[in-house]
Amino acid sequence: MPFAVWARGEKGNGNSQNINVEKLNKQPTTLLTFSADTNNDGIDDGDLKLNFTPDGSVDPNTVIYLDTDGDGIADSAPQTFTMEIGGTLPNKAKLNGVGPNNENLGGEEIVVLTLEDGTRLFFLRDFIFDPADTAASDDNFDLMEDFPSGGYSLVTPFVCYVAGTKIETTAGTKPVEELKVGDLISTESGASKPILYIASQSLPKSSIRAFPKLRPVLIPKNTLEALQPSQDLLVSPQHRILIRDPEIQLLFGMDAAFVAARELPFARLAPVKATTYVHILCDTHTVVHANGCESETLFPGDVAMISMSPNARSEIKAILGNSINQKTAYPCLTAQEAAVWRDAVQRREKRTA
After folding, report:
1. d(CA 341, CA 134)
2. Angle subtended at Cα 86 by Cα 81 and Cα 87, rounded to the nearest 5 degrees
3. Are 286 and 297 contacting, i.e. CB atoms less than 8 angstroms apart?
4. What pLDDT, in 10s, does the model give residues 248-288?
5. Which residues constitute the domain of residue 330?
6. For residue range 107-119, what is the model confidence (pLDDT) as tens digits?
7. Which of 268, 255, 249 is nearest to 341 (CA)?
């Protein structure tokens, strides 16, 4: 099912950690409808997963339809686009009290993209809506109309494990922060893969408190299928966990799918404290065992990459070469799909309690 956002113009200055919001008289608020129908023939031949391509090419499987006459309906030919950067908005007074509902946008995630005609826009990642929902469209339009122009320094989101997480390797279980390039990690298939790249970043308690979306998610022990994880697991909110659940098959026709940690039924926010995030990269997107839970390595095609510095992107591109544009190891549920699955799981739990 397509989804829509209202977007504002972004000047772009070559700095991956900043955005500069255009004034409305320079670039009006723009309706973007994302679709998997790449040929406008009524057939979904792509997907709705927004891909960052490190080589600067367009998203290969998703297109955007524009509202060309201002009636709130997408009516253009399909437009290609390129994902540029992403990050979390800072806590600033002028971002508090925005729009008709007086939203505090500090800590909200944004994504910047460029349309095929060169128009550069940004949207709020958590403010998507069903194109048929006119009330939601109106509210989100008013919000973006009221978004203050000017420059903002972004805070980097992370898709990582929290230090202390135990990763299974061929040499035994090791804390993620002790892993090194070249170490062989055990995968879901029983094979092993070498780590090609590893990086970490430490955030003080003050940053975790100021930016709730940087706060780790805690997945309690034994709350997933097969009694996973074997002990509480702490990961970044966007980190994907592999779910093998009968409801996934019933709802989506898939034996297994990735779900963001923050979308899991029993996940909760971890205590606020200083946090070190660590991510590991293999030659392909890989499922490993973290505290006994099937979860992902770094995927070089989404928000994990668009939020990295140009130097880090270049380093990963040099390491992976032609294999940098790759697919996820399993399908990924969108936030909307994850909500449907989560509701089904919670209903099942009530029936069997």
Report:
1. 25
2. 165
3. yes
4. 999 999 999 999 999 999 999 999 999 999 999 999 999 99
5. 161-352
6. 888 999 999 999 9
7. 249
